[in-house]
Amino acid sequence: MPPRPKKTGPTExxxxxxxxxxxxxxxxxxxxxxxxSNLLEPFYYGKSLTDPINTxxxxxxxxxxxxxxxxxxxxxxxxxxxxxxxxxxxxVEANRVVHSDADDKFFLRYTDIRVLKPNRIDEDIxxxxxxxxxxxxxxxxxxxxxxAAPIVVDIEYRRGNKMVRRKDIKIGRLPIxxxxxxxxxxxxxxxxxxxxxxxxxxxxxxxxxxxQEKVILVQEQLSKNRVIVESAKGIMQASVTSSTHERKSxxxxxxxxxxxxxxxxxxxxxxxxxxxxxxxxxQSDHEIILLVAGEDTVYQDQFAPNFEACTRENVYTQQQALxxxxxxxxxxxxxxxxxxxxxxHEAIECLSTIVITHVPVxxxxxxxxxxxxxxxxxxxxMAMHDPTLVDDRDYVGNKRLELAGQMLSIxxxxxxxxxxxxxxxxxxxxxKKPNRASEFDAYDHMHMHGNHLTMGxxxxxxxxxxxxxxxxxxxxxxxxxxxxxxxxSAIGMMTRISxxxxxxxxxxxxxxxxxxxxxxxxxxxTPEGEACGLVKNLALMTHITTEDEEDPVRKLVFILxxxxxxxxxxxxxxxxxxxxxxxxxxxxAVTRTPKKFLTDFRRFxxxxxxxxxxxxxxxxxxNGVHIATDEGRICRPLIIVERGRTKVTARYLKALRKxxxxxxxFLTRGLVEYVDVxxxxxxxxxxxxxxINEHTTHLEIEPFTIxxxxxxxxxxxxHNQSPRNTYQCAMGKQAIGSIAYNQFTRIDxxxxxxVYPQKPLxxxxxxxxxxxxxxxxGQNATVAVMSYSGYDIEDALVxxxxxxxxxxxxxxxxxxxxxxxxxxxxxxxxxINASARDPKNPNHLKIGGDGIVEVGMELAKDDxxxxxxxxxxxxxxSFSGGANAYGGSGEWRDxxxxxxxxxxxxxxxxxxxxxxxxxxxxxxxxxQTRRPELGDKFSSRHGQKGVVGIxxxxxxxxxxxxxxxxxxxxxxHGFPSRMTVGKMMELLSGKAxxxxxxxxxxxxxxxxxxxxxATILLSKGFSYSGKxxxxxxxxxxxxxxxxxxxxxxxxxxxxxxQDKLHSRARGPRATLTRxxxxxxxxxxxxxxxxxxxxxxxxxGASQLLLERLMVSSDAHEVDVCERCGQMGYQGxxxxxxxxxxxxxxxxxxxxxxxxxxxASMNVKVKLxxxxxxxxx
Amino acid sequence: MDPYDMEGGAINVRFLNADSTRANFxxxxxxxxxxxxxxxxxxxxxxxIAIDVVEVLDNTSVLADEFICHRLGLIPLNSTNVDDLLASxxxxxxxxxxxxxxxxxxxxxxxxxxxxxxxxxDLVVSEGRPNEEIGLPVITDPDGxxxxxxxxxxxxSIKMKCVAKKGIAxxxxxxxxxxxxxxxxxxxxxxxxxxxxxxxxxxKEWPKNEENANIDGIPQEGEPFDYDAVPTRFFxxxxxxxxxxxxxxxxxxIKVLQRKLAGIIGDLTGTEETNGVDGYGGGQSPxxxxxxxxxxxxxxxxxxxxNTSTWGGGGGTTPYGATPYGGGGGNPW
Lengths: 1176, 333
Fold this sequence. Notes:
Chain A: Its EC number is 2.7.7.6. Chain A: It catalyses: RNA(n) + a ribonucleoside 5'-triphosphate = RNA(n+1) + diphosphate. The structure holds 2 protein chains of 2 kinds. By secondary structure, chain A is α+β, with helices and mostly antiparallel strands. Chain A is 27% helix and 22% strand. By secondary structure, chain B is an alpha+beta fold. Chain B is globular and about 75 Å long. Among the domains of chain B are: 8-46 and 177-192 and 228-273, Gyrase A, domain 2; 49-167, DNA-directed RNA polymerase, insert domain (RNA Polymerase Alpha Subunit, Chain A, domain 2, Beta Complex). Chain B starts with 11 loop residues before the first strand and ends in a 64-residue tail after the last helix. The chains are: A alpha+beta, B alpha+beta.
């Protein structure tokens, strides 16, 4: 170990050889210290980052800079902003005018649409011009409101003979995403967040709908408007899902028996590809074969048989082809008027607007579309010839992610269209009437169906059901309740991606880890079980694109010297060295110098002549240059390398540090660029600067960014067996810790908080970036890895009683009780009735003067916490008189609320408020403080969970010669099979850090080195191996072997014995079956299951079986008539009209029920009786 | 071989180091089991006082009542001459009285704009204590603040009546006079109780306490291994939490140990009235403990030991779920 300068702190990467970075330590912080510099601070001043190469040391500073401009959930927020600012206007533009069928002079035109700042529902938007609403998201959470902003439009319309213009007409309310640019939190400094009762660390990106936090999960889909070549059941096919605002359709080009056909839902049968091309105006066979096969004789031979169809069907000209196609179109319109179908017109209509809709046809120019079809055909031929050219559906480059903005966009579009439709129907109704009393003003009708839009969006968000008839879309579970179990679970939810694949299907392809996921999706963070591999998480440094304008890019393509493909023939298109330029999958140009075109294009992008999210890559297999500007591509920033040198030099990093440059400046200066999956796979990316060679195009910013935020918590994950990291990703979300800075002002249904959370001793860069160290969920426990007492087998842990006494693992559990004071239709409403308090009733003792339990009281089972009265008469009836102020008859019924949980809790806080429906709501938050008990679940950060097996007195615990006792004793058998070397390294680094007083890091692919840690340990008088000699606390004798001993960060998981403890001797039964109820919450019985039953059968314990399955469950006595075998009643058989031979038998009630149910279905079941103890 | 009768002769104690917070000493010609007993007793059974019952009169701080109470309990209080105080269960009073408890008042309200920190020094000890020092919060920092209890913002206030009682750390760690006790014998591993694992050189790889090692005598090379040797020299390092002087912890520890032994002897001979040291940790037989014996259990399920676990809880509970102030069966909160 080389000598170190005084107090260097840990080194992350490499050794302490080169020291240019150290000089920067002397620079004092720039005067203007915003929170950005604070974010960077720990990496600049406290410790210096040493690395063989200077820029490689500091280049990672781009990561906090990236997160500063992008944030953890920027993809959601960007998407929402794009929707509000751009997409919304586009939707209105597309549905701008409302006409009337009754009066063709009438029109109403939307000239603009805007979303204002959020306000309360009862606030007038006119006032908002002068004074902004002071609503906060937290108020919405507490009052069960929707955090929404009014949507206003400007209109011009015809009233009488005049044109009327109106501005700022509210058409509905749009729920606002937190931290989007419409949110009140937008642009506010972190210090203001406290004033707004918000947490400054909370990332936003979710909605507050009816008081609940709802996230629209990112949805993964196959990309739209791109050709995918597949081989399905041996049939080669190219398919494309076209998607425009108007229509969605899927078109196939398939190869059947060596012939190419086009398939589409609108067509009754598959049409030979030649006919389609002919119908699109490519009449000569020569041209067709050139467009599809080029000059390649192999492809020509393969394609030639397709022309046979022409002679067979006698289709040679465009007209004949159109007639042929027209005759195959499915009749959708009702045959009104018995008009003879004009096949040619129908075929033209179909080909121009329905087949491959996303390639528009202007002025009967079918050429682009014909080329598109020709390319699809060519792709099929190529794949037939070379099966490796079949596309991979699971390739991440073929995927698009659908975000909140897109989901809201289709929802809004649907509702807006319906709004206009209903509006039109209303207008028509009025305009149809010949004489009107007053002049017709359309404005008056705009509010008649006022809140369909508001309610529609709100309902979709709160239920998660996206039902759109227009797209035949019925998706459930689009939104989810944001999990606030811990900070990390909320973060994890915001980066989650759910796949559209069925969970039940047993295919491994979509679930497998794709190499193209590298850097984009976290390789560790996926759930176990049925959703394994289908639910993914974004890596740390990713961005999801929003849509960019296509036209400027298209212009640029021609500026860069590519020739328009429409004027090119098959010779030029498929000639040797010719590359076709595709923009969003559509061929638009041909170039002979693809490499130059590519570099020129990139240069334009790097100097900021177009959006940085436009991607370009060359596909040499298809001879294509692909440019993508569409939305939903995952991309990530990389450092540009030119001529073997990185563009990011020390000078720029210094500027970054000073704050004179930010991440966007790096982008605009062309030092860093965003690269999407397709482009990434066309690049040569060096991980470290030393790996750069002459072919390198990019340099990674930091390798640990391939992991996501949740996996980033694991120290030394690169030393763990990979499933362990996956387990920790699932468990980190269950850890109890801090939720947010505003955790005490929130009233959640269930909230777990740790009393003394600690930041981990062994941190990672990710932890600091996502600020997990500010909202930690765990404690640094001193762990002895040894066997002790036998109460630690099977992953059980031994806890030190003194540690528990002092607050280790102590947590608070908050539960919400919400009561609504309902308003009834007749005007009556519930009320709090403080006068009902009965001083003699012991259950009323904790009620205060206002009829609500007092804060600080302990509520035990059966205590009353709210004195509520409901009106006796709540029905709407004209006879009730209604003289009473409350509307009802004035009679009240007590409906007090009692505390029902078995464990007592304290009243933490009470809130009384009113929601949007003028209903009074009372929220009572209950609190329990729990110390760890036997059976509570704990876990380290390495997927090593365990339950408490025993809590041992401190005097009995083993101790080191200093007298240090462990907090936790862990059984060493947990290590060999799990192979969590990272945990051992965490212990070592943690121990060194504690002794040294320094922060150690376990960052993936870096982190404090074991060798350095060993040196520290040795210098502090400890064994370098992390092992200590311990003395038994029971005997006082030295333990014969050394013990691995040191701090490990332990998480307390939410599974606690107190919530699960359950037993029952007798109790409630289900009404239908009369069997004991199920589940702890219903005081249910413990089931003797099938497998247990099998054991008893095998053993022959028939009496025990009888007792378990009948006597202790649903034994029932019935009278059975021996003669007819039917059940009788009170010793009388109704069927035989006799009491003779009717005997009582005991049978399970469920069996009796079955017989009767069968009887109700006309199935007669006869019971045959025999002697229980036959005498003979 | 009698360890008391070795060549050195009688048991002797040598102080290596002592100041107001720690006592570093060694005991020679002692026996391992007794030395460990002393360590255990000093750790768990030396009585001190700590806040045990808190009456929350007002708490508008951000922390929950139990949270603050837990913090209050862990504040070390001066326990000089704690024997002057009766154990709460031996006192005739209802709840608490001057004979068995010390009352501390905590009353703070933040009126300024700055965040106010409430420290242990803000605990006001009541009059009428058995001696001057007992019950005073231990404050050792140079500013004289003591441990921090809670932070208050403008308008928040806290008022609590804290009742400190006598207890032992076996029941709750807040009564621990010492958080950790260093204990070592045979630093040079001459007895080979420990099987050092090493890669090359155990001397280099296993740093040891040089001071103790020197005292114990560094083994000569080639010294023959004595199979019959037993440890006789024990190094103690008692560090106080603050409530008791370190030497007092040792003396009290010895006293407690003696009384426990006396209790056992008494029980065996049947003359002594005492039942253990404080009726708490000593040997118990079913007959002595309420005279129920193995007779018919009264309510519910009982163990043959008369429904009283060592920790004083009710039957059928974990030892930790039952505390003397909470009543058995429930959770501590």
